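User: Can you recover a sequence for this backbone? Please restate the input before giving your answer.

Assistant: Of course. Working from this structure:
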């Protein structure tokens, strides 16, 4: 029986606001020991000082510029001493037993390279985060699903919304808002591809990880994700999303 799993976790900040304190508290309250890292792409925020005061064991890594999401996560890669590493957004909360249960699953399923959970909005509705590899029509479906036509069905196909998955299932995609990956495999992949400044870094990591093992979506492992869908509201985020989409298809090929 696994009693003391070695876990590390990293949260990347960029003017993230106070909600990160709840995320950090979830890691602090977990019933397993872990190394927790914060990589701050915009140091100087008061919330970071508060975190350092509240959590003396926190490993804080301030950057002198905004590296982007994936590259910032890569900062801690040389320091990791864990067997399992968690990538987490600063707007995610979860139960105290989640990390232990996820490690136990991966210990029993050695072909599982990445484990991805079921995500809910704060109001209890399910997010149906994408679980297939991106294609042009799937991404159009996400942007235009409220319009008449095939867009909603494309989005549903992309996210497996209508599949009613109730058991652990191999999928193509692990959401970057929260995933657990074998640390050795993350090193083997050299972490995230830094060309993806923001968006699609998780799609690319998933695609590369599938060469080495399975990505498993486990519907009994639950998180709450206060998802803002910034690229649908903020023109700057939308531009980053568009640039990353072109980079992704240039790397992996254009598929309708």
């Amino acid at each position: 029986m696994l009693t003391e799993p070695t876990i590390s976790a990293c949260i990347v900040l960029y003017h993230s606001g106070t909600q990160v304190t709840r995320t950090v508290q979830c890691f602090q309250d977990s019933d397993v020991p872990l190394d927790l890292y914060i990589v701050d792409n915009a140091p100087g925020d008061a919330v970071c000082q508060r975190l350092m005061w509240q959590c003396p064991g926190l490993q804080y890594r301030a950057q002198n510029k905004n590296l982007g999401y994936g590259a910032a996560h890569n900062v801690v890669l040389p320091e990791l001493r864990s067997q399992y590493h968690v990538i987490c957004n600063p707007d995610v909360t979860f139960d105290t037993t989640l990390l232990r249960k996820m490690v136990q699953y991966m210990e029993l399923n050695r072909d599982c390279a990445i484990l991805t959970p079921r995500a809910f909005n704060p109001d209890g509705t399910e997010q149906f985060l994408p679980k297939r590899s991106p294609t042009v029509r799937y991404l159009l479906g996400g942007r235009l699903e409220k319009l008449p036509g095939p867009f909603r069905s494309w989005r549903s196909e992309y996210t497996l919304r209508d599949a009613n998955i109730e058991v652990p299932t191999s999928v193509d995609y692990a959401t970057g808002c929260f995933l657990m990956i074998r640390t050795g495999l993350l090193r083997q992949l050299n972490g995230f591809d830094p060309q993806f400044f923001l968006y699609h870094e998780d799609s690319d990591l998933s695609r590369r990880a599938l060469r080495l093992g399975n990505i498993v979506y486990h519907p009994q492992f639950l998180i709450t994700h206060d998802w803002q869908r910034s690229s649908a509201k903020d023109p700057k985020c939308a531009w980053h999303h568009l640039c990353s989409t072109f980079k992704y298809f240039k790397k992996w090929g254009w598929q309708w």
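That completes the design. DSSP finds nine helices and nine strands in the chain.
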